[in-house]
Specification:
It is built from ten helices and twelve strands. The chain is an alpha+beta fold. The chain has three domains: 45 residues, 2-Layer Sandwich (Uridine Diphospho-n-acetylenolpyruvylglucosamine Reductase, domain 2); 108 residues, 2-Layer Sandwich (Uridine Diphospho-n-acetylenolpyruvylglucosamine Reductase, domain 3); 95 residues, Enolase-like, domain 1, CATH 3.30.390. A five-stranded antiparallel sheet has the order 4-5-8-6-7. The chain has a four-stranded antiparallel sheet with strand order 9-10-11-12, with helices on both faces. Helix 3 runs antiparallel to helix 4. Keywords: FAD, Flavoprotein, Oxidoreductase.
Length: 260
């Protein structure tokens, strides 16, 4: 590690003010940032911890929506159960140490191309609430490790509509437990959404062809023989682009079958 200033504000307003300093970096659960610092891949002059901000904690179920504070841990989301598919997703992130430190807001802000939460936010049509505005999930994710957040903007909460049916299926990379391919399928009043993580070079995306097929027939059979194009899929030592494209089809059919 190296020398840096550390600040732990107790309000969102104080955190925003602290982040206005040159080269300041927000710290939520730290499950990605701390290893990045250790490897000297980032060197902020100040870390602003969001862990002491009470207003970023907690889960509220109100009518047709569930609002989760950005500082809420994966373990807390897993234990909640307001949206069973989301809780099941959170309960299979990393290991117990990661789940008890990592936060939903930190994961979405980081937007790792193989992270699980981006597929849930996109698949459920969530709204990301910040200190300055509200951003629908379709506009929030903008490529690998890239989001619509402005400099110094903080996610304060995520609002998820409750689906009629939903499921998440993840084909894990066994060493990291990140998704080699993960698919979140959700059926709601506005139709069917299918969000895919881990597969594309551009990060999380919606598989529109599958959504169209499932919109008229919400069954795994509606997707028989379907897979997205391999062009643009990640190809690495864990699997080729064609392998990942095929996995998207397989995991989507499993998610639909499990969602019922």
């Amino acid at each position: 590690m190296y020398a840096f200033d550390f600040e732990r504000p107790s309000t969102v307003a104080d955190a925003v003010a602290a982040l206005s300093a040159e080269d300041a970096q927000a710290l939520s659960g730290g499950q990605t940032l701390i290893p990045t610092l250790k490897q000297r891949l980032a060197s902020p002059s100040k870390l602003v911890s969001l862990g002491g901000i009470a207003e970023l904690q907690g889960i509220t179920s109100d009518g047709d929506a569930v609002t989760i504070g950005a500082g809420t841990t994966h373990a807390a989301v897993a234990a909640d159960g307001s949206i069973p598919a989301l809780s099941a997703l959170a309960g299979n992130i990393g290991d117990p140490a990661v789940r008890n430190r990592g936060t939903i807001g930190g994961s979405l802000a980081n937007n790792d191309p193989a992270a699980c939460y981006p597929s849930a936010a996109l698949g459920l049509g969530a709204t990301i609430v910040t200190n300055a505005r509200e951003i629908v999930a379709d506009d929030f994710f903008q490529g690998l490790f890239t989001t619509a957040l402005d400099e110094g903007e903080i996610i304060t909460a995520v609002r998820f509509p409750k689906p009629q049916a939903a499921n998440y299926q993840k084909f894990e990379q066994p060493a990291s437990r990140f998704a080699l391919v993960g698919v979140f399928v959700a059926k709601g009043a506005d139709g069917v959404r299918v969000a895919v993580t881990g597969a594309s070079e551009d990060g999380v995306f919606r598989w529109s062809e599958a959504e169209a097929a499932l919109g008229s027939n919400f069954s795994a059979g509606a997707l028989d023989g379907m897979a997205p194009p391999a062009d643009g899929m990640i190809s690495d030592l864990h699997g080729s682009a064609a392998y990942r494209a095929n996995l998207v089809g397989v995991m989507t059919r499993r998610a639909v079958a499990a969602a019922g």
